[in-house]
Design goal:
Number of helices: 5
Largest sheet: none
Shape: elongated
Oligomer: single chain
Distance between the termini: 119 Å
Mean pLDDT: 78
Structural class: mainly alpha
Number of strands: 0
């Protein structure tokens, strides 16, 4: 009486499944290894000797080193990743605010520009009052008017964003 034992490799579909599973696990281990190495270098609480010790442990005994590191310092690894991601997001937001806000002027800047124009005699007191009213009502509605340096942009008198734009000169 001979009994044959069928293994998973006897079936081509199961063989492909096992091959894919081992390949996936191997790649996941490499990802974990690289994340551990990056975390060792990113950690500011570790000194030079601590980083050297962990790095030597992870390189000389890779499987054991990675698993011990994840068990011993895994919770802090997530916190460091989160802090790094938040710092990158803040840096990006600051860059976007700086790049987008470069052309915008506040109401105070607009009013200062208006007073300068009035002081130089480029606009009259009446034009100054109308432009000031536009800036203050525009600022209270949530938007700020933008002052440019060119005159006569084609807007109707009293509706342009440039103080004195479209207003006849005297």
């Amino acid at each position: 009486m001979s009994t044959q034992i069928h293994l998973a490799y006897d079936y081509p579909l199961l063989s492909a499944f096992w091959t894919m599973l081992w390949f996936f696990l191997w790649i996941m281990w490499f990802v974990l290894l690289f994340r551990v190495v990056v975390d060792i270098f990113r950690d500011d609480s570790l000194g030079g000797w601590g980083k050297t010790g962990w790095l030597a442990f992870v390189i000389l005994l890779p499987f054991l080193g990675v698993f011990v590191y994840v068990i011993a310092r895994g919770k802090d690894m997530g916190k460091r990743d989160l802090a790094h991601a938040q710092a990158q997001q803040e840096a990006f937001n600051a860059y976007v605010r700086e790049a987008a806000g470069g052309g915008q002027r506040s109401s105070a800047d607009e009013l200062a520009k208006l007073s300068e124009l009035r002081a130089h005699g480029e606009i009259t007191d009446e034009e100054f009052g109308r432009a000031k009213e536009m800036i203050l009502t525009g600022a209270s509605a949530g938007g700020t008017a933008s002052t440019g340096t060119t005159r006569g942009t084609g807007s109707a008198p009293g509706t342009g964003s440039t103080p004195g734009a479209g207003v006849p000169r005297r």
